[in-house]
Amino acid sequence: MKTMKLAFSTLALVASVNVFAHGMMTMTYPKDGAMLMAQAERVELNFQNPMKVVSLKVVGSKGKPVSVRFNRDGATTKNFQTILPMLAPDSYTVHWKAMGEDGHMMKGSYGFMQH
């Protein structure tokens, strides 16, 4: 029984270290769920550890993508930003994928409303 407890404890410790080794999202702009009266000027993603954004899509409520340009060959960074074009009033979803310096891929999405 002691061997089993030790094995589970070791596994839990290794798993928790692995989770913290990757870049967790610390902040976005626009914030998830934001209702913006002023024009959103940029997409900003802030990570706990340096990440390389490899995919970024901004999509309106009817599935229409917004043209967003960014350097896919850019360096890893904790703070990623790219300029948005003028957005029409609508609900938008930002879909992103990023890769850590160790090659680990992460992805996520969040939404905001432009008035």
UniProtKB/TrEMBL annotation:
Gene3D superfamilies: 2.60.40.1220. One of its GO terms (cellular component) is periplasmic space. InterPro entries: CopC_dom, Cu-Rt/internalin_Ig-like, Ig_E-set. GO terms for molecular function: copper ion binding. GO terms for biological process: response to copper ion. It comes from the Bacteria. Residues 1-21 form the signal peptide. Keywords: Copper, Signal. Transmembrane segments: none annotated. Residues 22-112 form the CopC domain. This is Copper resistance protein CopC.
